[in-house]
Each structure stands twice: as structure tokens, then as C-alpha cells.
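Ticket #4471: structure output looks truncated?

Reporter: J.K.
Steps to reproduce: submitted the chain below (241 residues) through the standard prediction queue, then opened the result file.
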Amino acid sequence: MADPRLSMIDERLNGISNILAISSGKGGVGKSLVASTLGLILAKRNYEVGLLDIDFTSPSTHIILNMGDLCPKEDKGIVPPEIYGLKYMSIVYYSREHPLPLRGIDVSNVLAELFAVTIWGNLDFLIIDMPPGISDAMLDIIKLVKRIRFLIVTTSSQLAFETVRKLICLLLTSKIPVIGVIENMKMKGSRSVQPYVEEMDVKFWGEIPFDIKIEEALGDVDKLLDTEFSRKMEEISIGRI
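Returned output as attached by the reporter:
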């Protein structure tokens, strides 16, 4: 018997023009920061934007945005709270500060339920902060969410890019659009991943230099948007998505 949640997911996402997954091969490359900042940049430009954090390993967008006590409401589904021009939903509303020891069918059920019950309404963009790597969650989301496109975040580290290369290969083989790669936390003198990205026939969006001021800007959106990271993020992203 077909899962009735699948048709409900299509209905919930029907009013969203662009669904963009921010992903990486491994954690610690700034994926959540890219997702949060991109959402803020688009909202600042008067787009209707949603941000969904489904990083089962370590959700952190609520810390970056300082969500405080804001919580979703129930009204024939789950209505995300709004802050800084974003509609916001996170797996942390279910896990709180506890780890989620899920695998296999449990992950699939949580994701299907989350997408089926969340009421986004009409959006120009839904930004999804993905779990790192190639996991059950990644494979489930590809299956559940039609029209999804991926923006990949890496660093110049050879180890980080090797995991990214495998992720890109999986997506391209599955005919899932990869709209670009961002090289984050770029240090002077480090190698560039640009030629390796372009060898895979994927667009290289650009480099974002390591910004020492990011740590003190976490939880303060005004400070975050005033960092070199945010300015560079806006420069390389607007017009590409």
C-alpha cells in the first residue's frame, strides 16, 4: 500500500518555487552557516524564504539565528515560526538538545512525517540544511522531495573534497541537479578546488575567505550580515539561484 504521506508531501511543497539543499561530504565545513546566511540574504531582498534544518547529526541553525523560545504552532499541521523574514523549522524542535539515535526506517519515517506535516505556504525559496555525507537521510530526501537542487559546500582540504567528490558523483548519477560548489574557509596559500570541480562539469561559485569574526557573530544576525563571510556569500550567490 502506498504511503499516504507521499501525496501530502507533494501538496505541502506545491507552493514553493525553488527547493535548495545545502549539503557537504562531511561536517565542519560551514554548511549550516551557508544555509542560514543564504536564507537571510534572500529574505533581505524581499523573497519569501523558508529554512529547514534536518541535520540529524548536529542541528545548529537555531544557534546561528538565536531562535530562543520560538516554536512552531499546530493548525491542521505544523506552522513554522517566523523570524528575520524567514519561516523556520528544525529537527531540534523534536530532539531538543538530545542526540537522535536513529537509523534506517526510523530516519525515513521522521523525514516523511516532517515534510508531510509542515505547512510552508507559498515560498520563493526553501533552503534545506542537510545532514553531511551520503546517508539514509540524503537518499530519503532525494526520493521524497521533487524539484530539489543541491548547492555543495567544501573546504580546500583534500579530505573534505574527496567526500564532496563522491557526493557529487552520487547526485549526478541520480540525475539530481547540482547548481554549484562553494569553497568555504579559504586560507591564503591553500590549494583551490576549482579545477577539480570543473572537471566534474559542475559550476564553481567561488571562494569564501576564512573570517575570524564569524564566531563572535553567531546568534547575532545583524553582526552576521556585517561580516566578510556574508558579503562574499551574497556576492557569489545572487544571480546564480
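Triage note (M.O.): checked the attachment and the full C-alpha cell line is present. Residues 26 and 132 are 5 Å apart (CA to CA).
Status: closed, working as intended.
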